[in-house]
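Exercise 3.2. Students should predict the tertiary structure of the chain below and write it as structure tokens, then compare their answer with the key that follows.

Predict this chain's 3D structure.
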Amino acid sequence: MNLRLPVRAPAVEPTADTATRTVRAARRRYPAALAGALALGLALTACGGGEADTSEGEMPAASVEGAADRDRGTVLDTPFAKPDIVLTDTDGEPYDLRAETEGTATLLYFGYTHCPDICPLTMSNIAVGARDLTEEQRENLRVVMITSDPERDTPGSLGEWLRGQDPEFIGLTGDFAEIREAARGLGVYIEEPYEDEDGGIVSSHGTQVIAFLPDDDMGRVLYTEGVTHETFERDLPKLIAGDLP
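Answer key:
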């Protein structure tokens, strides 16, 4: 099939310690079935400068249906299982991801609060896309952001940041190794943050949003970073009803 890369969203003007680059992971060795997903833009965003290291580990296979389109989600014909992980929510309480989101449409994103552009834009697009949902629809939707920078994203700071996006968004933090393992199970690569030679923090993470349907808790739709709020506005009612977009 003919695939094209999504157009990048406009970036915030970078500063010395928040320069942002997107690097493609296509040079890594992936199973052949993942080639289509890579072409759809499963990228790493390296925030803080430096080159994202994509040499470690393998990501699971995921194949896709349909053409790449920045204005639509991509249906996965090999869906992902929801991570079986217990992290800490913004109230400092344990949060069992599977148990707490069971039976609801769930959008899952890995990012961090110091991200200068992609993370706030992604969460804002979801928030705008959800604002016209009915009360009943919102009760059957969970939007979860798991931090890729748990050392800096404490429950308090993560909660404050997410409230600026949507007070109903759920933020989770915890042990980085557990978070990275959960991300890899969804084909999302994240790198442990580190300090570069200029003293800036480099944090690299995949930019895709995975949507899980309520009936089987399987991640069946993937959204790349170029997806707009209109896409979420169109798709969320369908996902909440258990339908594919």
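Discussion points: The CA atoms of residues 106 and 212 lie 5 Å apart. The longest helix spans residues 118-130.
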